[in-house]
């Protein structure tokens, strides 16, 4: 069975790898390496399902990985990508007043546009499959944090209601986006991947409880007003 696992692992057959690892853990529950392997296999299978548009299956695998390792950053990121889209309304900052401070965050969006690309295999860190073409949408996000504390933030890209796989240039996939230092401006380049017949419709940025969105037109992806 371990030889079958090795073959499935090398072939990127994460569904089979998860099945074999579940069986091996029943036979040898004291082997700690099986937990580590099952965690990695579930994360990879979840990302694979997410790329295929199966968000429910992806969420189940990512949550299974999180149960194995609750502090696992890869599993946390996987769950965040596969989770249902937030229903919060687009954030509109209040007008400044003597008792209401101005909004502490600004976001500038610079669209680089689409490029033909190979499908992530299954993540950006694992290379790209040129035999399975997708569209890569590049965008620079420049966030100004005028607050006095470092801020964690998350970014999700969508095609309609579909949550798209994305990665950050210069960062290990699954790792956190760098915090925004206090009183600073940070620019980060993102790549989001769509099928050939899809387009990125919008992105959602959360900074603590602040929600900022940006919307894009089909075709070249230029900015358009959000509905």
Description:
The protein has two domains: 2-82, Alpha Horseshoe (Serine Threonine Protein Phosphatase 5, Tetratricopeptide repeat); 105-224, Sandwich (Immunoglobulin-like), CATH 2.60.40. The chain has five helices and eight strands, in the order H-H-H-H-H-E-E-E-E-E-E-E-E. It has helices at 2-11, 14-27, 32-51, 55-68, 73-82; strands at 105-120, 128-145, 153-159, 162-168, 184-194, 202-207, 210-216, 223-224. Strands 1-2-5-4-3-6-7-8 form an eight-stranded antiparallel beta sheet. The termini are far apart.
* SSE pattern: HHHHHEEEEEEEE
Kindly report the spatial arrangement of strands forming the biggest sheet: 1-2-5-4-3-6-7-8
Shape assignment: globular
- Which percent bin holds the helix content? 25-40%
CATH class of the largest domain: Mainly Beta
């Amino acid at each position: 069975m371990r030889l079958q696992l090795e073959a499935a692992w090398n072939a990127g057959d994460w569904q089979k790898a998860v099945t074999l690892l579940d069986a091996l853990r029943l036979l040898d529950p004291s082997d700690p390496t099986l937990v580590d392997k099952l965690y990695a296999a579930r994360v990879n299978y979840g990302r694979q399902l997410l790329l295929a548009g199966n968000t429910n299956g992806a969420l189940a695998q990512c949550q299974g990985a999180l149960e194995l390792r609750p502090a696992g950053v890869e599993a946390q990121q996987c769950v965040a990508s596969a989770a249902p889209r937030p229903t919060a309304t687009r954030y509109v900052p209040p007008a400044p007043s003597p008792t209401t401070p101005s909004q502490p965050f600004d976001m500038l969006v610079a669209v680089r546009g689409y490029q033909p690309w190979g499908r992530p295999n299954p993540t950006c860190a694992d290379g790209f499959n040129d035999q399975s073409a997708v569209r890569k949408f590049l965008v620079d996000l420049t966030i100004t944090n005028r607050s006095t504390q470092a801020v964690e933030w998350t970014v999700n890209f969508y095609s309609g209601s579909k949550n798209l796989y994305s990665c950050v240039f210069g960062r290990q996939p699954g790792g956190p986006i760098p915090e925004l230092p206090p009183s600073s401006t940070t620019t980060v380049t993102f790549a989001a991947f769509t099928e050939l017949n899809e387009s990125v419709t919008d992105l959602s940025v959360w900074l603590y409880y602040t929600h900022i969105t940006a919307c894009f037109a089909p075709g070249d992806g230029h900015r358009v007003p959000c509905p």
